[in-house]
Amino acid sequence: MGKTYSTEELVSRWEDQRYMKNLMGKYANCMILNREHEIFDRFWSKKTENLCLSFNDGAYKGAEAIRAYYEAEYRRNDLVAHLLQKRFPEKLGSLSDEELYGIGPFKVKPMSCPIIEIAEDHQTAKGLWYCQGAYNKVEGCGPVARWTWGYFAVDFTYEDDAWKIFNLMYVNDVDCICGQSWGKEEKPYPPLPEFQPLEEFKYPEYSVKKTIRPLYAPDRVLTKAPEIPVPYRTFAETFSYGIS
Amino acid sequence: MANSRQYTDEELIQRVWDVEEIKKLIHKRVIYITNEMRKEELNDLWVQDPNHQKTASFGRNTGYYTGMDAIRDYYVVHHQKEREEQLKQLHAANPAIADVPQNLHIGCLSSHPVSTGLVELAGDGKTAKGLWYAIAQETEAQPDGTGKALWMPEKIAVDFVKEEDGWKIWHIVVSTDLVSEAGEDYSEQEVYHNYETNPVDVEFGTPTIAKLIHNTDFNWWDNYPPMPEAYETFSDAVSYGPEGYVRPALYGLDSKEGRNFR
Fold first, then answer.
1. How confident is the model at residue B188 (pLDDT cuts 50, 70, 90)?
2. pLDDT digit string (tens) for B1-27?
3. What region holds the SnoaL-like domain (chain B) (predicted)?
4. Which are the contacts of A119, defined by CB distance < 8 A and separation ≥ 6?
5. Are the beta carbons of B135 and A128 separated by less than 8 Å?
6. Is A181 an interface residue toward B (CB < 8 Å)?
7. B95 cis-preceded (ω within 30 degrees of 0)
């Protein structure tokens, strides 16, 4: 059991939790809408050093690297839309760049099972969500739908009367083509020449390149979920979702 | 019927916070399952009061284990033995997989994330009832080097009781609606459930009270476990334990009729 709070404090902390749930809801909606390039300015801390955004196979460290990742997502979305415009000139040929942007990728990342703990000093908070998502993307083989099941694990900081992200870990257990078994070898779709530029597209290099969470495989040893937040007094006294 | 009590502001806030804590508890269970922390789940998330432990129950489609000792035997001890046997088989098929404790659960992935939460806190604030749905899956490594991945969507119904150190799970019913291998067409399954081969039923074994409480042949027509309704104080009549089970008037094939059966 953590500290006992007054009624007023409980109300405030309930509102804080709601704020963080809404923040992650907005984050997911930005992904659905292919507005990743808005995410950094809207949701990330501007006053914390050593920000960290991590995935299964590496981490971006610092504001510049994280912003560059989201901008790369924007460029990839733009490239996909233009390749689809070439492929479907009758339907898409007359659209301006602005009208065209966002056609193609459909990244659904619904977040469930939130476990949120707010520090006793109210300066930071931690949240863990399960995400039974889908990533309907366009790859070198053309459109492909993938199941993506994993976790969003987030450290928040309270600055300028709002909660902001300073560490975000999005890692999956499953990333497989919909309709296939994640327990068996993936049967990839054959490449399509009109989408080959996507094979050449590169995201920025990770600041830390290492396996943070291996995807499920029949020979994967038990791989525990990101740690469950527990009640804590100050961030220095708990663990971090950042990667070193 | 809605709760007609009048609460002070303090009581109302406490009730709001209690529901948050109950949701958090069941969300933690999701992670414990993924982490294969069954023993810890019973120690951390389930009732500790001896009187509650005596009446605790774990139900699945084919009955209930009652009392924490029986629950532990099924949920922890039996599961551990199954996993040890599974590892032996993997090792026999592929000696590169060593039969050592750190390889226990190799190739296993269990995800039972809950959604659609529906929580009713008793008028007296001492107990609560919740119902969730989970698009769950369980995957186990096979000796041929693949993983057998099974969808198992399910309702999860829980009675909670507030103990000295917070809310605890008291009775649980996990009613599986379907078991289907990933990548296969589940509409091709046999219509009638086979209790001898269904992996959930086989794993559940022979519970303390063995009886069919959720018949999946015709979807949800048996309405078990039912949605929680507003209630004032806990009683056997509202329990998700075996004492609260009510045999539906129209019961599966016995009735020769039903929503999807003509």
1. confident
2. 556 789 999 999 999 999 999 999 999
3. 14-171
4. A125, A232, A233, A234, A235, A238
5. no
6. yes
7. no
The mean pLDDT value for B170-182 works out to 95
Angle separating helix axes A63-87 and A36-43, nearest 10 degrees = 160
**Burial of residue B228, with CB atoms counted within 10 A of its CB: 0-12 exposed, 13-18 middle, 19 or more buried:** buried
Contact A219 B107 (CB under 8 A): yes
**Sequence letter at residue A58:** G
Cβ-defined contact of B147 to A181 (cutoff 8 Å): yes
Average pLDDT in chain A? 96
CA distances from A151 to A169, A218, B22, B125, B156 (A): 8, 20, 21, 32, 21
Rounded CA gap, B212 and A46, in Å?
A: 57
Nearest-by-CA chain A residue for B100? A221
Nearest chain A residue to B147, by CA: A183
Give the residue among A202, A176, A201, A200 at the shortest CA–CA distance from A189: A176
> A190 CB near a chain B CB, below 8 Å?
no
- CATH no. for A7-237: 3.10.450.50
Going from N- to C-terminal start, the domains of chain A cover 7-237
Mean pLDDT score, A195-209: 96
Q: Give CA–CA dist B207/B229, Å, rounded.
A: 28
Say whether B141 and A115 touch across the interface (CB within 8 A): no
- Helix ranges, chain B (H): 9-34, 38-44, 50-55, 68-72, 79-93, 199-204, 252-255
- Each residue's pLDDT tens digit, B150-161: 999 999 999 999
A219 interfacial to chain B (CB closer than 8 Å): yes
Domains assigned to chain B? 9-244 (3.10.450.50)
Q: Give the residue-averaged pLDDT of A207-216.
A: 98
- Residue A46 to residue A162: CA distance in whole angstroms: 11
pLDDT of B45-76, one tens digit each?
999 999 999 999 999 999 999 999 999 999 99
User: Hey, are the CB atoms on A225 and B104 less than 8 Å from each other?
Assistant: no
- C-alpha radius of gyration, chain A, whole number: 20
Residues in B closer than 8 angstroms to A11, CB to CB, are 13
Chain B residues closer than 8 Å to A14 by CB: 13, 16-17, 20
Q: Considering CB atoms only, which of A115, A180, A220 is closest to B107?
A: A220
Q: Check CB contact of A230 with chain B, cutoff 8 Å.
A: no
